[in-house]
Amino acid sequence: MRRIERECNRTISSALTAARAALAAVTVMTAVATGRAQDFADLKRALVDYSKAENEPRKACEALARFKSKEIARISATMVPAGEAAAHCRVTGLIPPRDRI
User: Fold this and answer.
1) SS3 annotation, 48-83
2) Over the Cα atoms of the chain, what is R_g?
3) Distance (Å, rounded) from C-alpha 98 to C-alpha 14?
4) Is 99 helix (H, G, I), strand (E, B) or coil?
5) Do 90 and 52 sit in the same domain of this protein?
6) Residue 7: which domain range?
7) Which H/E stretch holds residue 25?
8) Can you say whether the dihedral through the CA atoms of 32, 37, 39, 43 is positive or negative?
9) Rounded to 10 degrees, what is the CA torsion of 57, 62, 68, 73?
10) pTM, full prediction
11) pLDDT tens by residue, 44-80
12) What are the φ and ψ backbone dihedral angles of 5, each rounded to 5 degrees?
């Protein structure tokens, strides 16, 4: 009889542990889903004015376009004027594939 009691207690304990873990996971996911972190799609109500930059760039956009490295096959940089976001330099590049993995 005691053996059956112990097995029941273990089963109940395991079920309670699983239920607590599931409840914790749901709580965390709900908290994350509600903290939207000021999406750029909601600019009018954002707490930060993304159309103004706080810092000046360290390098000119043209200097970034001329950057050379053996790790980069191609690089380009284009100045994007201020609009919904502050003026910025959009940099795109291509990294060559590796010969050895």
Assistant:
1) CCCCCCCCCCCCCHHHHHCCCCCCCCEEEEEEECCC
2) 27
3) 49
4) coil
5) yes
6) 1-35
7) helix 2-34
8) positive
9) 110
10) 0.45
11) 777 777 777 778 778 889 998 998 888 888 999 999 8
12) -60, -45
Which DSSP helix (H) or strand (E) runs through 5?
A: helix 2-34
Residue indicated by tokens 């950057």: 67
Domain co-membership, 31 together with 46? no
Total residue count of the chain as it appears in this document? 101
What does the pLDDT look like over 6-39, one tens digit per residue? Answer: 776 777 777 768 767 766 666 666 555 445 444 5
Instruction: To the nearest 10°, report the CA torsion of 8, 13, 19, 23.
Output: 160
Which positions ≥6 away from 40 have C-beta within 8 Å?
Answer: 46, 50, 84, 85
Q: Which of 32, 83, 72, 45 is nearest to 91 (CA)?
A: 72
69 within domain boundaries: yes
Torsion of CA 22, 27, 28, 32, to 10 degrees: 140
